[in-house]
Design brief:
- Keywords: Lyase, Metal-binding, Zinc.
- The protein is mainly beta and 124 residues long.
- It has one helix spanning 31-37, and strands at residues 4-8, 15-19, 26-28, 42-48, 53-55, 58-64, 70-76, 82-87, 93-97, 111-113.
- The protein has a single domain, classed as Metal Binding Protein, Guanine Nucleotide Exchange Factor, Chain A (Beta Complex).
- The chain contains 1 helix and 10 strands, in the order βββαβββββββ.
- The longest helix is centred in the N-terminal third of the chain and has 7 residues, at 31-37.
- The chain binds zinc ion (2 copies).
- One zinc ion binds at residues 9-11, 13-14, 76, 78-79, 81.
Length: 124
């Protein structure tokens, strides 16, 4: 089943569309996700990477994940809102931040990652 997914940043300059992927949406409490979102965890929905169209002033930041794999975090260059995350480890997927969706109310996490890294003020 393929589902059409759309979203964008806070200022509206950056927008994306793509097809939902079969992988599980996840909530992650790791320190990378905390720093990249400015809050206690990330909520990530997988899309098929081939299907992603990302338009607007997007900057991609390259980092090394805990696994050692290169990982990219894309955000709007104008307002700074986080948009996507991708990794060489899962080359057929790109994850979008659930709060950037045009219809975030349909999102629901199916996996919880690194709950042991959660901050006291943001418990799983
Ligand atoms: Zn923006
Ligand atoms: Zn994480």
């Amino acid at each position: 089943m393929t589902q059409r997914i759309t979203g964008g940043c806070h200022c509206g300059a950056a927008r994306y569309r793509g097809r939902g992927a079969a992988a599980a949406p996840f909530r992650c409490y790791c320190r990378d996700c905390q720093r990249l979102t400015g809050t206690g965890h990330a909520e990530m929905l997988p899309l098929e990477r081939d299907s992603l169209h990302l338009d607007g002033p997007v900057t991609e930041y390259r980092m090394t994940a805990g696994s050692g794999a290169p990982t990219w975090s894309a955000f709007c260059a104008t307002c700074g809102a986080p948009l996507t995350r991708r990794s060489d480890r899962m080359s057929d997927l790109v994850y979008v931040h659930a709060a950037s969706l045009h219809a975030p109310e349909h999102y629901s996490p199916e996996r919880i990652l690194y709950p042991e890294a959660a901050q006291r003020w943001d418990r799983p």
